[in-house]
Amino acid sequence: MNTEVKIIKPGYFKWIGKNRCKTGSNVILIRDSGKNILVDTGSQGEDKKIIVALKKEKLKPENIDIVIITHPHADHIGNNFLFKNALFVDSLGEFRGDKFLLAKAERRITENVSITKTPGHALEDISIIAKNTKKGTIAVIGDLFWKAGDNKLIVFESPGKLKQSRKKILKIADWIIPGHGKMFKPARCRRESGASLLNIYIKKI
Ligand SMILES: [Zn+2]
């Protein structure tokens, strides 16, 4: 059986004024080895949208076994409360309720799904690598890219680390799911924009 990876609640990002934006992350469902994994949970107030999206997949919030958080920004963790039965995985380790297990950020979660450190946007960033999908290897990378062709960054911890993390992902991923845009194929994106995905311009705010 192939690993399935799907954006079930599309992310968005819009400027609405100086230093103000509207934002919600992609919410991604991964099915592997009989486990339902959700990556990121969007912004506060998107709970109903997520419940409807799960229903289309014949799932309820209590059917989610594992929630993986790419990084702890509020537009990626706003609906964690929905998933009462889930094991929560982040860069530190694993939480079930208030029970915490310290674990390495480089590890396998299920047979075809693993996590790896990709700091830069935030220092805690992790990416999820899903192998054996119909599209090859898909990387779900939080805000390492906000969207396809994205090289303007306004929230970052370390541009140097971000560049290294992008290099690491571009080497292994056939497709990338960014934090707020559609899934894209790095090779095609590079051809169309004519720009290297590693040219990073830091927009000051
Ligand atoms: Zn972020």
How would you sum up this structure, described in words?
The protein is of the alpha/beta class and 205 residues long. The protein has one domain (4-202): Ribonuclease Z/Hydroxyacylglutathione hydrolase-like (Metallo-beta-lactamase, Chain A, 4-Layer Sandwich). It contains four helices and 16 strands. The protein has helices spanning 47-56, 74-77, 159-172, 186-193; strands spanning 4-9, 12-17, 20-24, 27-32, 35-39, 66-68, 87-89, 93-96, 99-102, 107-110, 113-117, 126-133, 136-140, 152-153, 175-177, 201-202. The strands form four sheets. It has a seven-stranded mixed sheet with strand order 1-4-5-6-7-8-9, with helices on one face. It has a five-stranded mixed sheet with strand order 10-11-12-13-15, covered by helices on one side. Strand 5, helix 1 (47-56) and strand 6 form a beta-alpha-beta unit. The longest helix is centred in the last third of the chain and has 14 residues, at 159-172. The chain is globular and about 40 Å long. The protein starts with a strand and ends with a strand. The structure holds zinc ion (ZN). Zinc ion (ZN) is lined by residues 71, 73, 121-122, 143, 155. Residues 71, 73, 121-122, 143, 155 line the site of zinc ion.
